[in-house]
Amino acid sequence: MRDTRRTRLILALLLLTAFTLITLDYQSNGRGVFGDLRRIGLAVFGPVERLAADVVRPVRHAIDTVASFGSEHKKVQQLQQQVETLRRQLRAQPFEQHRAAELDKLIQVSSIGQYTIVPAQVIAVGRGAGFEWTATIDVGSRDGVRPEMTVINGDGLVGRVTAVSADTATVVLAIDPQFNVGVRLPNGAIGVVSGHGRAAMSLQLIDPSVRITPGTGLVTAGSVDQTPFVWGVPVGTVTAVSTPLAGEVQTGTVRPFVDFATLDLVGVVVKPPRTDPRGALLASPVPTVTVTVTATPAPVPQPSRPAAQPSPLPSPTPAPSHG
Amino acid sequence: MGRATRTGLFLGLVLLAILLDATVLGPLDLPGAPPSLLLLVVAAWALVTGPSSGAVAGFVAGFVADVVPPADHLIGRYALAACLVGYLAGLFRLEAKESVAAALGAVALAVALGTLVFAGSGVIFGEAAGTGGALPVAVASSVGYDLLLTPFVVPPITSLVRRLQPAVSRD
């Protein structure tokens, strides 16, 4: 009596519906009704995720902190209230320093490359059971973000924007299996780098006469009209290359500059540079001094949030919700 | 329990699961692929309500997960997988009432199949091309994490639904 005709009929109908949805979406290629559905989902759920990320962040940081403090944590609990407060400040500090350093790097990159960026915070990461590498960021159309814009951080290429709502946007990360980007080699030759999830990225050269060596740095070649990729963004280092026969195209593996496991602060390039920065960013020195205000790029066209203002940076005083 | 209350409770659980998946489990960056609380919620729900409402619940939950960010796959893929999870877990409704081990086994089976179907549909529609050998690892790790979470997620939900709904609907 558990698996009646009716039950099986329902199951068959539902499976058929799901399959039809997939097929229709496959054919519509992200446009039409399905594009609208995604946009509605982003508009409705984006702010909720944003809120949840704000709630969860202190908890996550607290977990990290406890883990790093280890056995010391027990002792700390027994200390007086005053000592506890001091410790809390101490614990919050590395995160703020880390964030400040990330922001510095981002500003450095955007000023050398002459990119105009909108800083953003990663608020959710989707892994679609490990086959889909996407993230939600807390800036949207109100901040001047549009689909098919390049997303970078202080280390290099993060991905590209696919969907945008008023306050949030979805980013496909560069290691997504569907991700391909055109890259330029130091000698001017062109190749294509593709993501493979957790595995290393792959490089495929176009010209069969060009040869590369491991250790070569790659930057984006820039798409037509700088969409979806602006030029000159560091992508990664070649780690291994194939040894093809004469007349065959060489391939290789690439280690991305960006650490996708710890994505936090990113920037959406809202305006590309007028000239190709080429390899300028590969050679960018480690910033020894803090970047001055004059080095920052021009403000964003529609600054509902000013470009220079980092997204929800925790205040210098420790949040009372800590611990 | 009225139909409206039941639907509301289910949608609440689904949204909570999606939120936690995206904001907590996703960013943790566990080795392999992360667990899916959503599939566990669907399986737990179906264990109490049976195969047909389990299949419907799974479809609805999967569809929501297909649409909300940061999902960027073909709409319907998760609906397909979660629908099967609900149906399969629902088949073990009577056993689940009798023994905890049967309930856990049913959840494990359903979730493993669901993850496999989701991954498989990605391969068929070319959305997971190039993942190659990583695929079995991802499926296995995701299911493994799910099983670790099962004792903490499934019993609370099943007991909650049972308490709210003393007379179990007939399928």
Walk me through what this model shows:
The complex is a heterodimer of chains A (323) and B (171). Chain A is of the alpha+beta class. Chain A has helices at residues 5-28, 32-69, 72-78, 81-112, and strands at residues 116-126, 134-137, 150-152, 157-164, 169-173, 180-184, 190-196, 199-205, 217-220, 234-241, 251-256, 265-271. Chain A has one domain. A 6-stranded antiparallel barrel of chain A has the order 1-2-5-4-3-12. A 6-stranded antiparallel beta barrel of chain A has the order 6-7-8-11-10-9. Chain A is globular. Chain B has a single domain (3-164), classed as Arp2/3 complex 21 kDa subunit ARPC3. In chain B, helix 2 runs antiparallel to helix 3 and helix 6 crosses helix 7 (134-164). The longest helix of chain B is centred in the last third of the chain and has 31 residues, at 134-164. The relative contact order of chain B is 0.17. The mean pLDDT of chain B is 84. Classes of the chains: A alpha+beta (323), B mainly alpha (171). Chain B: InterPro entries: Cell_shape_determining_MreD. Chain B: This is Rod shape-determining protein MreD. Chain B: Its main location: membrane. Chain B: It is found in: Cell membrane.
What is the strand and helix layout of this fold?
The complex is a heterodimer of chains A (323) and B (171).
Chain A: H1 5-28, H2 32-69, H3 72-78, H4 81-112, E1 116-126, E2 134-137, E3 150-152, E4 157-164, E5 169-173, E6 180-184, E7 190-196, E8 199-205, E9 217-220, E10 234-241, E11 251-256, E12 265-271
Antiparallel strand pairs in A: 1-2, 1-12, 2-5, 3-4, 3-12, 4-5, 6-7, 6-9, 7-8, 8-11, 9-10, 10-11
Chain B: H1 3-28, H2 37-49, H3 51-67, H4 77-91, H5 93-98, H6 100-124, H7 134-164
Helix pairs in contact in B: 1-2, 1-3, 2-3, 2-4, 2-6, 2-7, 3-4, 4-6, 6-7
